[in-house]
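Structure ticket #2291
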Amino acid sequence: MKRYEKLAQDIESTIRRGVFRPGERIPSIRQTAQNHHLSITTVVRAYVLLESRGLIESRPQSGYFVRVHPIETTSKEIPELVPSKPIATSAHVDVSRLVLSTLRSIGVDEAIPLGSPYPDPKLFPFERINRYAYAIARRKTQWGVTDELPPGNPELIRQIARRYLENGIPIDPNEVVVTVGATEAINLCLQAVGKPGDTVAVESPTFYAMLHAIERMGMKAIEIATHPRDGIDIDALALVLNRRRVAACMVMPNFQNPLGFQMSDDNKRALVRLAERHDLPIIENDVYNELYFGDAHPTALKSYDTKGLVLHCASFSKSLTSAYHIGWALPGRYRDQVEKLKFLNTLTTPSIPQLAIAEYLEHDGYEHHLRHVRKLYAQQANLMRATVMRFFPEGTRTSQPTGGYVLWVELPPQIDSMQLYQLALQKRITIGPGTMFSAANSYRNFIRLNYSYAWTPEIEKALITIGKLASSLM
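Resolution: structure written out below.
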């Protein structure tokens, strides 16, 4: 046991024995460090651990206090989800109307956004990036502001390539095509490898943005069994590929939305090898790759691609700023086709947001910002899982995210998530009903929850309310 873990265990024991009562202030970090002859860093890590377990809470300029209603994160083991087993038949996709209606509800009457697909914007250095943008705009007025033709601004592309290199994934800057967010990158890549009527393999459940792209192209989706920890079932995908023509496979190997898993390197390697045997393009949505909870940056499918079959898509919208919608694609052998489609579809990408982000990456503490966000998300993931398991009906299961900011919750089978969605909305709370994550209208007793927003009494009360509403539907 590490020193900070031992300290956390000792403090937890004193809280459980009533030495520190709910609402009471515990000794400061500095005082604890002096009393236990430990470094400040060790104590901070212990307090962060206790906070993630729901035993204490920090109050600005006041210190740390025992939670009035401590969350019993260690009282029982949280049951795991079981792997999905979809029927491997292709289906037309029609989820856009449902998704649009649920997204519209997020901003209604200041509803608590547990159903939001977006991260909490308060965590982003928006003002700093905006200052760069303002300064750039003032400089550019001397000769007129011009937007960037494909492939995008050279300085931003250079910064993107540097970031990949820092994370152990060397890329060719000449492969990068800057897009209006990852959504455009995904759409362009799918358009480059398929045509209307084609069948595309997807995870099950899958992020609805992938289904949108398939629906937009008039394609069909075939859902592949997906393990909540290991990702897409490669054997099941191989069986499908041996039986029918599939134009492409769309996956999120790192912190998949909604399951939150990170595929192992062995599975990533095996998936790419399978694609190479069948000459199958893989569209890799890697928008959450910076939001990992572990000690090391995850690898990408792109790392194992030797034949240019992986079309890698990412953006800054989930990790830095959602206001500017700057994404990119690394389309492998389809690079020229994606660049052409980018020109035909949207012609240019605004230059000022590209330059502002490039300057931030060059001069500000992007990694420091990310470390802060990762720590918060990891803490809040633990708090949300524990709260769900405490207040939701018996038989509830949750995913175990290793990154990102969404939690997938399986409710007892008799609960209809659309009914729950409507009841929650009446209480000004939004959730993500599970049917949005399947082309086959599956996952009717599942919901997705967002834990990126600061943990507050309002968030906790909203989760307790959802649990009561779910119980009323039993």
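Closing remark: The mean pLDDT is 91.
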